[in-house]
Structure formats: structure tokens, C-alpha cells
Fold:
Amino acid sequence: MSNNQLLENVKILRKFLFRLLHKAKLTYLILIFVISLGISGWSIEESSALRIPIIGFHDIIDAQKTADLPPRRPAFENDYTKQDLSVFLEYLFQQNYWFLSSQDLYVYFLDKSQPIPEQHQGQKPIMITFDDGYKGVHTNALPLLKKLSLLYKENGKFVLFVNPHFLGIALGGKFLPHTTCNDLREGYQKGFYDIQSHGFTHKNLTELNGQDLELEISKSKLALRKCMGDLDKNKIIGAHIAYPYGASDSEVEKILPKYHLTGFLYNDRFLRVQRLRNNYRISRITTDRNTSPRDLIRVAQKASTFKQKNWF
Structure:
């Protein structure tokens, strides 16, 4: 064999080895990536389409109690019955949903400052909220939550967006009775309530400006923390706000970071975590007296699931 042929063969062999090593390296990297996905327990599909329903209620009435029905009590469009709520809550407990607090949502999904706890693998997340701080939530909804939490050995959670100016006020007529500070403390101490702001006096924040806007926001947070006092060691009471009337704009959102970590709208949409570009425009789904438990169950079923880990 001539020297030229020998050199040519060496060149061909070098090219072949280079291509083989390149393919092997690529295959190795792909394998490492796939294994890492399996160890983490998350799939690409889940992480790109995370959907969380946040459902908003107002007052809860007992359809079997005359004091909760006309003419003793006026009927309102946003009323929801204890009986229908019971059906929905029992479904959530039976299906092992994760009842999120506002801080859970922020820490695990928005800020991502902590990994999702192991015990929530295989669960669907949901947030159940109540606006305005009506007494009916404490007298009609809380007993349901207590009963089901005891039965299923897993604490549920309600997020209460409260106007502290009206705490304990019951004027009668069309002005419905509100929870007291002691009611809030009781529910919070037992792990059932997450207490957050709904503005101090339920004014439309977009109709305020300057000092009036700032006072409506700041006084609410201060009053809630004063009420909860020693129970709020981590300073998370009033760290989040739901807008009265679901109304917000750029001027409101410019002030909010001084007082709150997140803001909640009413726009009848799911929270799609990867699509959220503004923590002060978090979507919520409204309910009223025409919303059936089946309607709510259909909404809950669309929540994303955290799948069990697959170990390789």
C-alpha cells in the first residue's frame, strides 16, 4: 500500500471516529435529560400547561333555615347555598385536591422560591375564595370544612378576602352581617382560614387616586394584621389582595407592590401559570346562585395534576 493510500485511509478512519463520538455524546446527553425528567417527577406537558382554578364565592346561606331566606333575609345574585357547597367540597376531598392558600400559590407557582412538597404529588391544585367577609361563611361554610377535614383526615383551606372596616357589623336589611375579628382568629388558628385583603371599605380602587387610593389599600392590611396579631408570626396576613368589584388598572397596580405580593381579578378564566405576566392580574372564576355543584366540579376537573414520580 502506498503512502498516499495509507494517509487517505487514516483520514477516513478519523472522520468515522469523530462522527461516532459525536453521536455517542448526543445520545448520552439526551439520556441524561430524560433521566432527569423522570427523577424530578415532572413531565414537559405538565410544566408548559399548568392550569389552576381559583373559584370565588360571596355569602353562604342555609336553604333549610328560614332566617337565611326571604322575607327574613334579602336574596342576592351572588348567594350560594350550604347544601350545594357541601356537594362540591365533598367531591374535592374525595378526589384528594390540594386546597391552596394565597401564599402557597405565590411561593410554589409564581415566585417558585420553594419546591412543591412531596405530599402533593398526584394531586390537583385548587383555590376556594370568599369575598367581603360575610358571617354566612363562618356559620355555614366553615362547619362543612371542619367536618370533611376530620372525615378525610386532610385539612381543607378557605381564602377569605376581607374588608376590615365592616368586621362585626350587622345593620340588618340589605346590609348583611359580617364576620368578627374573633371569627377570623378562630378559623385561622385551626388552619382553615387564610385571611387576605379586599380593600378597607370595599371601594372601587380604580375610582380613587393619590392618598385616598393608598389609604384604602394600606389601612386594610394594617387592620387585618392588628386583628390577627400574635397569630401572624410569618407576616402573611394581608400580603395578597382581591380587588373590590374585580376592578384594577395600571395606577392601582403601580402602588400595590408596596403592600401586596399578588392581586386577584374576577374574569372567569383559569390561572395559567406559564402565561401569567403580571402577579397583580391573577384570574378567578365567579359563582352565583345559578352555578350548580356539577358546574363547579367540571371546572375543578380541568385543573392540572401533579403526577407521581417515575424513577428510572
The mean pLDDT is 88. The longest strand covers residues 125-131.
